[in-house]
Amino acid sequence: MTSKPEVDFIEGPAPTELQIDDITEGDGPEAVAGGVVDVHYVGVEFDTGEQFDASWDRGQSVRFPLNQLIAGWQEGIPGMKVGGRRRLICPPELAYGPAGGGHRLSGKTLVFVIDLMGVG
Question: Residue limits of the PPIase FKBP-type domain (predicted)?
Fold first, then answer.
């Protein structure tokens, strides 16, 4: 997993609950709730398929405490193992909240493809 993933456009209505799909199973240490993760990711809007962010475009992964991230990541990353690639589809309430919430992505369902590079 050394290259930026393509995020395919998803047909149909946006899900109302968090969707978690493993693209590649990792075989390293496991991410835990409340832990720290080092990830590469691509984020796109579900409705348009337009990318809004990607660590790949900045040339380096990012390290975060999970408890500082959106709820969809807090729920969707634990259990993932280093070396894995996972797709999360986050409805607005697990992303940046309802429309009018003050964030440019408020009210939007978001799709992330996340590569877990490290934990701890």
Answer: 34-120
> Which of the following is catalytic: 38, 46, 96, 115?
96
Question: Is 108 within 8 Å of 46 (Cβ atoms)?
Answer: yes
pLDDT digits (tens, 9 = 90+) for 40-93: 999 999 999 999 999 999 999 999 999 999 999 999 999 999 999 999 999 999
23 is catalytic: no
Residue 9 a catalytic site member: no
Domains (range + CATH), the chain? 30-119 (3.10.50.40)
